[in-house]
Specification:
about 45% helix
């Protein structure tokens, strides 16, 4: 577990990413991406290539990686989401993450979802997984609201927690990709990278902290490590 001198646990609020952190959504997302990319001749078909799309904002990835133009991006994302919605409920949880979320909730730490996935889709999935009840708020991307970057998702999550009168003096973001680290840093908060997600060792090295299991995550966030 990596740590800097500050900040130290326990934390006053925890923001948690979804894809690659709570859910192992890779196969479902890749299936939806393949359906769209094959339709438009995008030559990204291997697992390694498609993995780069998991986590970052879709608007950014569809422009910079898939090569869709500004005029095409919104339509292509809509097609992806239609395909993804069809298979959304096939998304599995990582072993131990449901229990970890319940334990954090029972420890009295306010939780917020903070994902680059579309907010409406994220809420539907969290409801289906029966996890929404443990979160003070569920925040995802919302292009109509001008919220597409991870930094903007984190900012909104902190604002919603604060509006509920919850303590955000020592917040932390839990995620699995470099954009989680960068989104946290843009809001001047700490980050915890989980090793079971889709990031690599270079990405994890840039986080404030690292954990290797859901059990270790709970112990660390609550300050109950040995």
């Amino acid at each position: 577990m990596k740590s800097n001198i500050l900040p130290q646990p326990p934390f006053s609020a925890v923001l948690i990413d979804l894809d690659g952190t709570i859910t192992d959504s890779k196969e479902v997302i890749m299936a939806a991406l393949r359906a769209v990319f094959r339709k438009y001749g995008v030559k990204h078909d291997t697992d390694e290539e498609l993995n780069t799309y998991i986590g970052p904002p879709l608007e950014e990835s569809f422009r910079e990686l898939a090569g869709f133009t500004e005029d095409e991006v919104d339509e292509r994302i809509a097609e992806f989401r239609a395909e993804y919605n069809r298979i959304l409920y096939d998304t599995p949880l990582y072993d131990g993450m449901a229990e970890a979320i319940v334990q954090l909730y029972e420890a009295g730490i306010p939780l917020s979802l903070a994902t680059s996935k579309n907010e409406k889709i994220s809420v539907r999935l969290m409801d289906y997984l029966e996890l929404s009840q443990y979160f003070a708020t569920l925040v995802g991307s919302d292009a109509a609201a001008g919220r597409t970057q991870k930094s903007e998702v984190v900012q909104t999550a902190l604002a919603r927690l604060s509006q509920q009168g919850l303590d955000i003096s020592r917040p932390v973001l839990v995620g699995d990709r470099i954009h989680d680290v960068e989104g946290a840093a843009a809001n001047q908060i700490a980050s915890v990278m989980v090793s079971w997600g889709y990031g690599d060792e270079d990405e994890r090295a840039r986080a404030t902290y690292r954990v290797d299991s859901p059990q270790e995550l709970v112990a660390f966030l609550t300050g109950k490590t040995d």
